[in-house]
């Protein structure tokens, strides 16, 4: 049997949730901007570790390019905040934090070389797919809200994320995945 105290705690918790809840599309848009802003800022800090751990020159160059793009994406997001009369504010994105934690684990748990490079690409593509989903959603929200400047900036970033994803697939398929697969064969021979 539930006590009156636990019922009151449930009501109090529900009221707090409602006060922090998004009440409309604009709130969802602003919350999404804060999440992706946090994500982009964190990526500018985590990509250098991926660069340091990658061994294939093509992958290293792609990751360096992504780092420069992430810095530009932070600037674009700051413009969107300013256009909407908001202070640029980062809100921790649990999804991106989880993806990046997994990426860090992949780096630590893989052999240096093609196997680690394949893991870095896999991790970075998870990042890109999350970003593509987020920027696509924010672009749609901006268009619906009549925020045309924001929609244009978000569309630019979305296109860049899609191109980066395609580049990573190309790098993986051209050499890295096959080299990582050969490492399987060598390991099986030794066993």
TrEMBL record:
Top-level taxonomic group: Bacteria
InterPro entries, sorted: DUF892_YciF-like (IPR010287), Ferritin-like (IPR012347), Ferritin-like_SF (IPR009078), YciF (IPR047114)
A Pfam entry, by short name: DUF892
Stored CDD domains: YciF (cd07909)
Protein name: Uncharacterized protein
Native species: Flavobacterium psychrolimnae
């Amino acid at each position: 049997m539930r006590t009156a105290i636990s019922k009151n705690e449930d009501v109090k918790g529900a009221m707090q949730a409602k006060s922090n809840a998004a009440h409309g599309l604009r709130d969802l848009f602003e919350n999404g901007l804060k999440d992706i802003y946090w994500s982009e800022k964190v990526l500018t800090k985590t990509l250098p570790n991926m660069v340091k751990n990658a061994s294939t020159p093509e992958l290293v160059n792609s990751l360096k390019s992504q780092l420069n793009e992430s810095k530009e994406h932070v600037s674009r997001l700051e413009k969107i905040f300013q256009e909407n009369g908001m202070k640029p504010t980062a809100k921790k994105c649990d999804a991106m934090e989880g993806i990046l934690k997994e990426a860090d684990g992949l780096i630590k748990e893989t052999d240096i070389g093609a196997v680690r490079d394949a893991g870095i690409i896999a991790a970075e593509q998870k990042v890109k797919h999350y970003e593509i989903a987020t920027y696509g959603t924010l672009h749609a929200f901006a268009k619906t809200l009549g925020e045309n400047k924001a929609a244009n900036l978000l569309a630019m970033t979305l296109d860049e994320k899609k191109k980066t994803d395609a580049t990573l697939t190309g790098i993986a398929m051209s050499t890295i995945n096959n080299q990582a697969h050969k490492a399987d064969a060598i390991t099986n021979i030794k066993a």
